Amino acid sequence: MDQTIRWAVNHMPKTDDRNLPVMGLSEVRKARAFHESFPQYTTTPLTRLDRMAAYLGLKEVYVKDESYRFGLNAFKVLGGSFAMARYIAGETGRDVSELPYSVLTSDKLREEFGQATFFTATDGNHGRGVAWAAGRLGQKAVVHMPKGSTQTRLENIAKEGAQVDIQEMNYDDCVRLAAKEADETERGVIVQDTAWDGYEEIPSWIMQGYGTMAMEAGEQLKGYGCDRPTHVFVQAGVGSLAGAVVGYFTNLYPDNPPTFVVVEADAAACLCKGAAAGDGDPRIVDGDMQTIMAGLACGEPNTISWDILKNHVKVFIAAPDWVAASGMRMLAAPIKGDAPVTSGESGAAPFGALAAIMTMEEYRDLRHEIGLDENSSVLLFSTEGDTDPERYKNIVWKGLDR
Ligand SMILES: Cc1ncc(COP(=O)(O)O)c(C=O)c1O
User: Fold this and answer.
1) Where is the Tryptophan synthase beta chain-like PALP domain (predicted)?
2) CATH 3.40.50.1100 residue ranges in the chain?
3) Which atom in ligand 1 lies closest to the alpha carbon of residue 122?
4) What is the Å distance from ligand 1's center to 126 Cα?
5) For 369, which of 56, 200, 283, 310 is 20 to 30 Å away at the CA?
6) 247, 234, 194, 218: which is closest to 315 by C-alpha?
7) What are the φ/ψ torsions at residue 316 (nearest 5 degrees)?
8) Is residue 83 within a helix (H) or strand (E), and if so which, with residue range?
9) What pLDDT score does 401 carry?
């Protein structure tokens, strides 16, 4: 615990918010309807941790448990699958609402669309989702993983029938490689979970796909009698997920949005770096970005999301690895009477940050800045389960830090 949590309060200049409609409620409803057409679809659990909330000095703590998503142990498939469907819809002159799972996987549509090759780069979860969706839709997938990716994550992608390898380069360079190969391949399409200048349509569909998770959570909160969370904590790699969640809830509660907090891995905290610089321009982190939070090890912000985040987020947090590790342990063994949540490194980082902020005196100023107290209802997303089972056991069972 020698490394402390860093944070930047958002004082960046506001923009015209032109990307907020990407996460408009009607767009997200389309994504939700698409996902509901999958035979594998069920709403993932929203777990309320009452005793943990009391222990932390909060009113309510809710954790959306994405380890149950489509049997893939992470939320990511929501994005890739919806983007691929929208792409195929566009190519075949349809609206995505005309392409539920049964039509998309039909022989008739396969004959009409033929076969494309979907390229992507991934830390693991996004590539697994793309490979899974490509397999179901009779399409090809090529997946590149950054240096340091584990064999287990690679095998999970290979099992879905994709061509996959681990490159001697970081995530952001793998993205450039995948984009280049897609460009050079006949019927090659890059399905990347981040946007850059000139590449915005597919990533905006991916963000809308993530909206399904946020929409479910909003409904589940109501079911618990919580009309609106006061705070939403969301983790970020490139920030597509954070932009989706922040955008959706800003559109859902336009008059009274929750306070949004973004949590990154300290080693890859590009959004926090941008917020600290304060001029509104994005910043980049490069190098190997060593962290246990593989899903958050991305150093170049999604340009669409960045605009949403700088208009609506209150605080950006850079969390060292111990924050994620302690979040994993606390969720695995919460206070007696609360249900456990199997939460992996990238999944548990926001909860670990919340727990540290509420219990460690050195973060009192941050607690006040965010406005967390006994009246707060906090929503968090455990975006993955034990996607790296060996490491999960090392951290949770053996008490190691990696
Ligand atoms: C489990 C998990 N959580 C969170 C994220 C962060 O999402 P984004 O890169 O859109 O910020 C990822 C990204 O791969 C992930 O795999």
Assistant:
1) 40-354
2) 6-75+202-396, 77-197
3) 14
4) 8
5) 283
6) 234
7) -110, 130
8) helix 77-91
9) 83
Evaluate: CB of 141 within 6 angstroms of ligand 1: no
* Contact assessment for residue 332 and residue 47, using Cβ atoms and an 8 Å cutoff: no
Q: Is the pLDDT of residue 1 over 70?
A: no
pLDDT exceeds 70 at position 112: yes
Structure tokens that stand for 166 in this block: 């681990």
Task: Confirm whether 76 is a catalytic residue.
Answer: yes
Q: Which fold has domain 77-197?
A: Rossmann fold (3.40.50)
Mean pLDDT of the chain: 97
Per-residue pLDDT at 59: 98
The answer for residues whose C-beta is within 8 angstroms of residue 361's C-beta and 6 or more apart is none
Index of the ligand 1 atom closest to the CA of residue 126: 14
- Residue whose Cα lies nearest atom 16 of ligand 1: it is 295
Residues in the chain: 402
CA dihedral angle for residue 117, residue 118, residue 124, residue 125, rounded to 10 degrees = -130
Quote the tokens at residue 300. Answer: 């170049």
CATH architecture of 6-75+202-396: 3-Layer(aba) Sandwich (3.40)
**CB distance 383 to ligand 1 below 6 Å:** yes
Residue of 49, 79, 18, 50 lying closest to 211 (CA atoms):
79
Q: Is 123 in the pocket of ligand 1 (CB under 6 A)?
A: yes
Residue 75 tokens read as 């939320």
Q: What is the mean pLDDT of residues 73-81?
A: 96
Which residue in the block uniquely carries the two structure tokens 């859902």?
252
Q: What percent of the chain has pLDDT over 90?
A: 98
User: What whole-number distance in Å separates Cα of residue 80 and Cα of residue 72?
Assistant: 13
> Over 70: is that where the pLDDT of 86 sits?
yes
pTM: 0.97
Q: Report the distance separating Cα 253 and Cα 256, nearest Å.
A: 5
Percent of the chain with pLDDT over 70: 100
Cα gap 158→312, rounded to integer Å: 38
CA 235–ligand 1 middle distance (angstroms):
7
Give the residue ranges of DSSP H helices in 278-380.
303-312, 321-332, 345-359, 364-370
**Is 95 assigned a catalytic role?**
no
Give the other-Cβ count within 10 Å of 69's Cβ: 27
Assess whether the C-beta atom of 301 lies below 6 angstroms from ligand 1. Answer: no
Query: Is pLDDT of 279 > 90?
Result: yes
Tokens, residue 96: 């995505």
